[in-house]
Amino acid sequence: MDFEKYDPVSTLKVPEHILTRAKYPFIDVHNHQWNMGSQDLGALVKEMDALHMQVMVNLSGGNGSQLKQQADNIREHAPKRFIVFANIDFDGIGQPGWTTKAVQQLEQDVKNGANGLKIFKTLGLSVNDNTGKRVPIDDPRLDAIWDKCGELKIPVLIHAADPAPFWEPMDEKNERWLELASHPGRQRGPKNPAPWAQIIEEQHRMFKKHPKTTFINAHFGWYANDLAKLAELMEEIPNMYVEFGAVIAELGRQPIMARTFFEKYQDRILFGKDSWVPSEYATYFRVLETADEYFPYHKKYHAFWRMYGMQLPDGILKKIYYKNALKIIPGIDKSGFPD
Ligand SMILES: [Zn+2]
After folding, report:
1. Is residue 69 classed exposed, middle or buried when 0-12, 13-18 and 19+ CB atoms within 10 A define those classes?
2. Which of the listed residues 20, 29, 152, 334 has the most CB atoms within 10 Å of its CB?
3. pLDDT at 275
4. What spacing in Å lies between the alpha carbon of 32 and ligand 1's midpoint?
């Protein structure tokens, strides 16, 4: 038998609270729907209702006519339930006039119904300019875009790089070995296309350079496994918020440290999940709401360890589930949420 096969049934008997529905209506700020322009939103709303998800933020809005179609479909069929973020088309960056055009497109997208901007991890990893050079996240050719978001009072949700172990040797010491073994495309060399720390630092420099713009650092900025470091960044960068999409397993293995972090930064943490698999939300609710011990995560390649609940108090839960998102994302109907 090998490690991938080993999957022992726990003999531990402790109280279990399997939550298929959140205690409060919540806003998922990190979701992807790829076909929202023509999708039957009614079917999606039913699935959301079962989870108690009041509002879904679709980060894959695109731009131009694609974005407008999505915003129109939302306005017509479920205006209180969905928010859409625009995306930048980085093609041609470096050509004269690129920045001006990108800013104009963003303004138009916001007029058409976008309530935020999402930057995919391609920026910093695979976006090259017209001379073939990697575009760093803090490239000055992007400054006007970040400033425009501040001016329009829309947040920028940004996913930079990936977990650091993807840059490290894939050996018996690598904590993401199983993920790399099952997803070989995720492995990178130490400098492919730049060292991990360099890409992450570009992101932090960019946040600091644009203090009037609100940034949501996706996936806890890949520091969910080092909350002391993330706390330092929270202090240094007051315009940075974080969401915990795809990293709840990191929080669930350190419930005491994580709860302390949530207490301290309760006004700057948002609920995010990323991939749309409704059954997986139960793990998130359980880590946030319960005091359950030693329960499994839903994907062994993210967490071969077991999880523990943080049992956050109601006041913090409400902030995480909806109050913080209502504060920074414009255009969300507030009537669906308690005080
Ligand atoms: Zn995502």
Report:
1. middle
2. 29
3. 95
4. 6
